[in-house]
Amino acid sequence: MRAFLLFLIILFAAGTAGAQEIFNFRLNGNGARSAGLGYAFTGVADDASAISWNPAGLVQLYQMEASVVGRMSAASGTVDGLRDVGITNWDVEAQSNFQFNFASFVVPFSLGGLDIVGGVAFRRMFDFSQELTQTIKTDGFSFNYLEQVRYSNVEGGINAIAPSLGIKINDMFSVGVTANILTGAEDGDSSVEIDGLLDSENSYSIDYSGLIIDIGVLARLSEMISVGATVSLPHDRKYTIVDIDGTNPGLGESTISAPMFYRVGVGFRPTDNLLIAADYNSRPISQIKLESGATLADFDVPDVNSFHVGLEYLLGTETIIPIRLGYYTNPLGIKDVDKNEVVAGVITAGTGIALGNVILDASIELSGYQQTLDNTGPNDITFTEGDVFITLGAVIHLGE
């Protein structure tokens, strides 16, 4: 058990203080409205965030508009079950500053008798930003310290400059495409203090690049029902580790190759005031291939497929206030000691208000999960975490 404890401490340190996010392909949704709907938006896609969800939905926009979205988060967790080996408390606190999430500009126009909406977005596709503090307290007998504090701070992520086009084929069908030109960087630093004295410090920096092509289709089967699908074509994520503890390691550019991802969704409008939506998001990250030829499946990494449901109800007549609720599963790409995939459940809510040509939206996401780390001793060792995300957005209609 003691050997496992030492391994556990090293694992948590590596997993949070200096772990590059090179293999992070988890969902980072764009837009405050879609967040309130539990990111069930592929079959809806009726605002500017369609650039990221389903570009075919852009044809539902009839005037120029611009949008901007930001997000912040906080989390706390505990490792339990270690008192019998001398660890009395192991607390984890995490937070991020207000981060850019999405900005866009779209313009409708006609060409060759076709209704077309063009747009461009700058979006955070994968967000790595997080400041994390782990505080480990012991009884002073089993370990040679009373308190160990592990601090890590990661800033940045993978952004995309995303030109997009939606084309209306007829009253029922539309298609669209988004080219996500990847750019971004990840900068991390960490430190360890033992009983108030600095024990070690580390830092790293990674640059990212690549291209992801999204192709979308939207079918309005009736006034009440729409269905949509988006395919992200197989693509490469290129990365360069440019700094480790103040020194460029000179490793050069590396590449990992991702398979096709897809999502499908449906929107159901039984009345003018009510929208019900559902999505399925497939991200088979276990098939991601390294330059060596190995895949993440060889390292027992599970896929991160997710389910999403949401509803929106419009209150009022002259001043309309939307009420949004949703739920989605958020697989973390890890397994517990019994080889079961660890999946967080996320409850979402949101609202908004229109002030002339400006629409303001806000959402909150509440997430939680528990992971069993070891079950061979008298007490199970578990890690329990709760998260909150707040997203704020504004849309400005520029046309009549």
From TrEMBL:
Highest taxon of the lineage: Bacteria
Keyword Repeat: no
GO MF annotations, alphabetized: long-chain fatty acid transporting porin activity
Signal peptide: 1-19
Keywords: Cell outer membrane, Membrane, Signal, Transmembrane, Transmembrane beta strand
Subcellular location: Cell outer membrane
Topology of this chain in the membrane: Multi-pass membrane protein
GO cellular component, as recorded: cell outer membrane
Principal subcellular localisation of the protein: membrane
Family the UniProt entry places it in: Belongs to the OmpP1/FadL family.
Protein name per its UniProtKB record: PorV/PorQ family protein
Organism field: Caldithrix abyssi
